[in-house]
Structure formats: structure tokens, C-alpha cells
Prior knowledge:
Belongs to the pseudouridine synthase TruB family. Type 1 subfamily. It is a single chain. The chain is an alpha+beta fold and 227 residues long. The chain folds into two domains: 6-66 and 200-222, Pseudouridine synthase, CATH 3.30.2350.10; 68-198, Pseudouridine synthase, CATH 3.30.2350. The protein contains six helices and 14 strands. The chain has helices spanning 18-29, 54-57, 60-64, 99-107, 130-134, 173-183, and strands at 6-12, 34-36, 45-52, 68-76, 78-80, 89-92, 111-115, 124-125, 128-129, 145-157, 160-167, 188-198, 201-202, 207-208. Strand 10 and strand 11 form a beta hairpin. The two termini are 17 Å apart. The mean pLDDT is 92.
Amino acid sequence: MSYSEGILPVNKEKGRTAFYLVKVLRKLSGIKKIGHAGILDPFATGVMVMLLGRPYTKISDKFLQHDKEYLATVKLGASTTTYDCDGEITKTSDHIPTETAIEDVVKEFQGSISQIPPMYSAKKVNGQKLYVLARQGIEIERNPIQIQLEIEVLDYSYPELKLRIKCSKGAYMRTLAYDIGQKLGTEAHLVELTRTRSGPFELKDCIDAKSLSDRSFNFTPYLRKEA
């Protein structure tokens, strides 16, 4: 095992993809086998657990089992194709939910719930990624999954609803935003998302992704050998 192999928690910046982080780390480390434990959409920020070297990518499933925490901003009044700010608006609503309605609906999403994965996702059905079909205008039936949620309302000032969310693996925050909107009798989509924790890794444990653009940056002091 080389000195550069290990687990590197990174604070992903807005507008970057997970593949971008993989590509940059390959150049910096010279390691070809690099993966991650849970993707973040380009508009999202926060904790990404990068796995450097085959000994770590081989055990990626262990890291994928971790629960996660997020800070999310949901915008009410409009839904989009992707359930987030990167999609095109599909429906709008002028209904303004009350604070009481918000609190009541959020209670329905506490604990164990059933969630249908979104079409714009990397989830595979019959060997094909859903987003590939979605980009062709094809929508197929998806089996619901069971997830665990713990949600706290941080602020509500229409049209924005700010939430703190703890969730089990496999939960889609974009779908949660859309589903909350439907329960409220309006439309909704996710406009901001920050992953504040992934398993034992918190934002305070991460290096800033912007540091990786410096070819002379030495990230090895930040590497962990076990989680």
C-alpha cells in the first residue's frame, strides 16, 4: 500500500461533480483506483468520502451503509423535471401552506417511510441507469424503498423551507422535497443541499475541494486508514 492510499473526506464545492474530484485526485496522487462513498449532485455541497486505492474501493459497500445528515432548502410553488434546481419547471402552484401545515406534514415523514427513487438518478433498473431513460423522455415504474428519516424544521419563510435531515442509506433528498410539496397540496423542489455528515465523517473533518486544484497541495496528512 502506498503512502497516498486511504480515506479522504472532502468538502465538495457547488458546481462540481463527483467525477471531477476523482479526476483531480488521480492527478495529485498518481492512484488510478479511486472511488467514493455516496455521490452528491453538482448543485450540492458538503461531505464526500473519497476512497483512494484498491484496498479501500473494495470495501466501498461498508461506507455506503453509513447514515447521513443534510441541511436542505426546499422551494415551494414549483416542481421540476429533476426535483431540484437543475431541472426545468414542470408545474407551479400559488398555494401557500401555513406553518401548522408544514409541521403536520413533516411529521408524516418521520421514522420509517416508503420512497420511490426519482427517474433522474443513477439507480439501475434492469441494468440501465434511470437518468439515461429520463433523458430520453422515458419514465418506468420504480419499486419503492424503505428508508429512515429524522427531520427538523429550521425555518419557514415562503417560498423557502429549511430543514435538517438525518437519513439512512439510499434516501433521495430531491424526492423528499417533491413529496413534501405534494403532501402540502403544492409543488416543490430542492434548491440547496449540504451534506454535513456521512457516517463518522463531518464537515469539520473535510478538506476544502478547492485546495485540490493546487498541484503542489499535499493531502496525505488528511488521509485516514480506517473509519
